[in-house]
Automatic annotation (TrEMBL):
Signal peptide: none annotated. The keyword tRNA processing does not apply. It comes from Prevotella multiformis DSM 16608. InterPro entries: ADP-ribosylglycohydrolase, DUF1810, Ribosyl_crysJ1, Ribosyl_crysJ1_sf, Rv1873-like_sf. SUPFAM superfamilies: ADP-ribosylglycohydrolase, Rv1873-like. This is ADP-ribosylglycohydrolase. One of its GO terms (molecular function) is hydrolase activity, acting on glycosyl bonds. Mg(2+) binds at T34, D35, D36, D213, D215, T216. Its EC number is 3.2.-.-.
Length: 405
């Protein structure tokens, strides 16, 4: 399921600004989850919480979660359905049924159950035969991929049972391909992207490079690619961090139910690895104890919120929000080291903080970092650093971004 979310987030930038290239940036400052992710997680929540798999409960989950994210990018008809006190299916053959179906295929214990649940998940809105067919085609491809079917077996099954032509080439389709939200025009290309790709990332790049409804095509392709290849850790970590805490909770609960929850979803080991390389943390601690920073380690010793800096280091070592900051503090090594480094700074209370941190820029980064961790753990050493060197003044941009998250 996370594969579909990754596809959605990567494709989100290109949905209305199509690219026909495969060498685009996977992530930009505008990358975000859309309605595809929200509804995928609504289906996951339904499967997790309602073991009877009733339609009324699915509708309730979709409406409740969807209304919490009113600007996620829903289509007009679906938006009206979302807020209708008596929602009824509206005979749609749009690809909304295919983009949200991936949890079904990871949950089901057989192909028959996959097809049954896919139809249920579709027909509460997309009860047109093509809408149901699209959902069943994507779900069956994912189920077959995760049960070790070959690509040719998946191609043959989908062609024989859903009559999609999967012997075309994306290179042939790409030049004339235009925006279309129907299952008929998006489900086959999504499956073709999976069939032509050689790893997870290439599948996503192929799906987006087609143009058109990029986020949804990539979401459908990403679900199949996850089942076949697994998900690269860096992509999973980046996209997990872009989810809101409530959405992360749904994902965590679903993966825990399936027994595949990642023990370190934020990939905090990236900080451990950086600190351990060539003794970087010990070097940083020595510099702080001597009262003069001279080498480059600020990003992974005093991390700040993602998005405050624009360098590759700032993005890679950026903290997503209060959840990741709390996890950082709870880490048996990182939490203790952060406090140790902050205490080392405090020993220079009578000095100019810019002299201690080696310049103005890192002085600002230290304040941002201390503001972040003081917010999730008040009355700790972080607040003392702010009081001692910044007269208690916190970084307003950090506070503002935390409120938005």
């Amino acid at each position: 399921m996370l594969g579909a979310i990754i596809g959605d987030i990567i494709g989100s930038v290109y949905e209305f600004h199509n690219t026909k290239r495969k060498d685009f940036h996977l992530f930009t400052p505008k990358s975000r989850f859309t309605d595809d992710t929200v509804m995928t997680l609504a289906v996951a929540e339904w499967l997790t919480e309602d073991r009877s798999h009733g339609k009324e409960e699915l509708v309730r989950r979709m409406q409740t979660l969807g209304r919490q994210y009113p600007t996620a990018g829903y289509g007009g008809k679906f938006m009206r359905w979302l807020y209708n006190p008596k929602p009824e299916p509206y005979y749609s053959y749009g690809n909304g049924s295919g983009m949200r179906v991936s949890p079904v295929a990871f949950y089901a214990h057989s192909l028959d159950e996959t097809l049954h649940l896919a139809e249920l998940s579709a027909e509460v809105t997309h009860n047109h035969p093509e809408g149901i067919k699209g959902a069943k085609a994507i779900a069956s491809a994912i189920y077959l991929a995760r049960t070790e079917a070959t690509k040719e077996e998946i191609r043959s099954y989908v062609e024989e049972n859903f009559l999609y032509d999967l012997h075309r080439s994306l290179d042939d389709l790409r030049p004339a391909y235009t925006y279309d939200m129907s299952c008929q025009k998006t489900v086959p290309p999504a499956i073709l992207a999976f069939l032509e790709g050689h790893d997870f990332e290439e599948v996503i790049r192929l799906a987006v490079s087609l143009g058109g409804d990029s986020d949804t095509i990539a979401a459908m392709a990403g679900g199949i690619a996850q089942a076949f290849y697994g998900v690269p850790r860096k992509l999973a970590t980046y996209c997990y961090a872009l989810l809101t805490p409530p959405l992360r909770t749904i994902l965590d609960n679903f993966e825990e139910m399936l027994g595949c929850r990642e023990s370190d979803p934020f990939c905090l080991e990236r900080f451990v690895e950086a600190q351990e390389t060539n003794g970087k943390y010990q070097q940083a601690l020595v510099e702080l104890e001597h009262g003069h920073k001279t080498t480059h380690w600020i990003w992974y010793v005093f991390p700040q919120l993602k998005g405050l800096g624009h360098s590759a280091y700032a993005q890679y070592y950026g903290i997503a929000d209060a959840d990741e900051a709390s996890a950082y503090l709870a880490h048996p090594l990182l939490g203790s080291r952060l406090r140790e480094a902050a205490h080392a700074v405090l020993t220079h209370g009578g000095k100019d903080i810019e002299a201690v941190m080696g310049g103005h820029i890192d002085t600002l980064k230290l304040r941002s970092s201390m503001t972040l961790f003081d917010a999730v753990c008040p009355n700790d050493v972080f607040g003392k650093v702010l009081d001692t060197f910044y007269k208690g003044n916190k970084d307003e941009l950090t506070i503002e971004r935390m409120k938005k998250r």
